[in-house]
């Protein structure tokens, strides 16, 4: 998939992008959470 | 490159950095300002300072070159950098580190551990490890920066070394952590600009994402026989399971650096600089995106260089760079990018070096004054409490420069792996225990730190081939490069030192339970 020869590499390539996206979503969701 | 233009740009760059250090100086009034930036840093500044401290020139050029050799498998490290190095470090460990440090009144990582375990030994041992051994890591980052100045400005290497070290030490001494974090943030912005442009240009140079990956997959038959014997299966596949290449990639590169980041004193203490949990949650976004465009981009670009050079010269990257792994990224950048970008990438890599060294100097300074001198109760009769920290910065700088003269130039990767592995084995069980386990005891922590240090050092000196050969101690004492045969020669010491230190910590704590009369309130609440 994605032109890679190995599924583990596809997971790593996609995972790197998605984990950065996750960090953005996490911050936005938690923006005002947590006692001051 | 036009040298006069470059020199003018360098003056402007130095001017901006000096102004930011001056700003840090103006806003530093108390010891807490100097050590933890007054505990009110902006989430954006904290995240960018953390990221640029983590990423040095060798992360981009050195490890980028390594990914050109190994392939996309190194992206597992980029993934861990984001998930472990940012998300877990900020949202989980960071939240507790910040709260515990406020509660215990700790301004440094060794003091945090020492106060939690009510042990001066823990503080002094950690402080000594930072003050004595960290210069080995600082010096290789310094070598990376000085080599770069040498190549780009045709400057004498030793002169570049001293100029860089003295300039950076002056920033730290003048403005403490505020100056460090302000200059870090400027460096991070320059780094982001350079790497974002480079990532898109690299994919464009090989015809796009899918076409690039497919072209690289089709190059499997160009893997050199020597690498294929070691387990290389092409640049879009992992090395074969259990092969020497697999062990090096997984145990040293991915696990060693990916997990080791959690125990880096200069990174952990960044979480003490923000005001509250909310700030840490907001930092996750900036940290994650920054890390993606640093290691994520570098490890995507590295393998693609093989396809670009195959299309243009019919050779793989290692052949184009005459087997010098550190030359791959610079050669590729010069080939595909316009001249104006070369100036930007030069400042990107210079910023990567400076932002890391500036933080290492600061941590070494505070280890000397706060963790060693103050904890041991040595009275040096100085009026200004920050004077000792500044002396520590100067001593750390001097040690790093001297080591840069002594260390061979090709030891950057080994020295980095050594420092990361040692910190993880030594500090990680005690740190996790301090934050998450109320039954963790002083004896358990001390035993685990000593065990982690001894086992890790033994592994690096006598078992792991790359470092053992470089140190040469096994050869001198026993007449052989390493004491055990494969796979131990390729298994990173972190792989066995960290589990051993963890077992020692748990067993030691269970056997000596109730030794700490009064656990910290937070540890009671949270466990």
Automatic annotation (TrEMBL), chain B:
The chain crosses the membrane at residues 6-23, 44-63, 69-93, 121-145, 157-174, 186-206, 245-263, 284-309, 340-363, 384-406, 418-437, 444-463, 494-512. PROSITE patterns: NA_SOLUT_SYMP_2, NA_SOLUT_SYMP_3. Keywords: Cell membrane, Ion transport, Membrane, Sodium, Sodium transport, Symport, Transmembrane, Transmembrane helix, Transport. It catalyses: L-proline(in) + Na(+)(in) = L-proline(out) + Na(+)(out). GO terms for molecular function: L-proline transmembrane transporter activity; proline:sodium symporter activity. It is found in: Cell membrane. GO terms for biological process: proline transport. It is a multi-pass membrane protein. The keyword Membrane applies. InterPro entries: Na/Glc_symporter_sf, Na/solute_symporter, Na/solute_symporter_CS, Sodium:Solute_Symporter. One of its GO terms (cellular component) is plasma membrane. It comes from the Bacteria. The keyword Heme does not apply. Belongs to the sodium:solute symporter (SSF) (TC 2.A.21) family. This is Solute:Na+ symporter, SSS family. It comes from Thermoflavimicrobium dichotomicum.
């Amino acid at each position: 998939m994605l032109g890679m020869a190995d599924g583990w590499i596809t997971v790593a390539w996609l995972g790197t992008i998605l984990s950065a996206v996750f960090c953005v979503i996490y911050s936005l969701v938690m923006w005002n959470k947590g006692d001051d | 490159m036009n040298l006069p233009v470059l020199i003018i740009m360098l003056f402007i760059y130095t001017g901006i950095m000096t102004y930011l250090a001056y700003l840090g100086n103006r806003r530093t009034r108390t010891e807490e300002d100097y050590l933890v930036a007054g505990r009110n840093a902006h989430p954006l500044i904290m995240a960018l300072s953390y990221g640029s401290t983590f990423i040095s020139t060798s992360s981009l050029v050195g490890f980028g070159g390594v990914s050109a050799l190994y392939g996309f498998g190194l992206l597992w490290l980029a993934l861990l950098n984001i998930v472990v190095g940012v998300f877990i470090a900020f949202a989980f460990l960071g939240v507790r580190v910040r709260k515990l440090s406020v509660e215990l009144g700790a301004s440094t990582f060794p003091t945090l551990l020492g106060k939690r375990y009510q042990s001066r030994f823990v503080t002094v041992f950690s402080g000594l490890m930072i003050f004595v051994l960290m210069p080995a890591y600082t010096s290789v980052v310094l070598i990376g920066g000085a080599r770069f100045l040498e190549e780009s400005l045709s400057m004498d290497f030793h002169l570049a070394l001293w100029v860089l070290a003295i300039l950076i030490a002056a920033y730290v001494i003048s403005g403490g952590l505020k100056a460090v974090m302000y200059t870090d943030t400027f460096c991070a912005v320059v780094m982001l600009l350079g790497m974002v442009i480079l990532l898109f240009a690299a994919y464009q140079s090989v015809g796009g994402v899918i076409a690039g990956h497919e072209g690289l997959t089709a190059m499997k038959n160009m893997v050199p026989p020597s690498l294929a014997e070691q387990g290389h299966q092409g640049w879009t596949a992992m090395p074969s399971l259990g092969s020497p290449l697999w062990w090096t990639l997984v145990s040293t590169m991915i696990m060693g650096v990916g997990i080791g980041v959690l125990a880096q004193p200069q990174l952990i203490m960044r979480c003490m600089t923000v005001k509250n949990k909310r700030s840490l949650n907001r930092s996750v976004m900036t940290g994650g995106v920054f890390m993606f465009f640093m290691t994520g981009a570098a490890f995507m670009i590295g393998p693609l260089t093989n396809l670009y050079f195959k299309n243009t010269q019919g050779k793989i990257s290692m052949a184009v760079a005459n087997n010098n792994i550190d030359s791959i990224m610079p050669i590729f950048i010069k080939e595909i990018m316009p001249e104006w970008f070369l100036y930007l990438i030069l400042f990107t890599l210079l910023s990567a070096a400076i932002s890391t060294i500036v933080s290492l100097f600061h941590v070494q300074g505070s280890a000397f004054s706060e963790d060693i001198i103050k904890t041991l109760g040595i009275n040096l009769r100085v009026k200004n409490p920050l004077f000792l920290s500044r002396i520590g910065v100067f001593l750390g700088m001097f040690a790093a420069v001297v080591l840069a003269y002594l260390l061979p130039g090709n030891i950057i990767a080994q020295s980095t792996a050594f420092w990361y592995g040692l910190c993880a084995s030594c500090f990680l069980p005690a740190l996790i225990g301090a934050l998450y386990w109320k039954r963790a005891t002083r004896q358990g922590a001390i035993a685990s730190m000593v065990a982690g240090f001894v086992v890790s050092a033994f592994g690096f000196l006598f078992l792991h081939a790359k470092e053992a050969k470089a140190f040469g101690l096994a050869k001198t004492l026993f007449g052989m490069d390493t004491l055990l045969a494969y796979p131990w020669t390729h298994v990173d010491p972190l792989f066995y030192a960290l589990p051993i230190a963890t077992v020692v910590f748990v067993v030691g704590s269970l056997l000596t339970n109730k030794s700490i009369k009064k656990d910290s309130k937070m540890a009671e609440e949270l466990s």
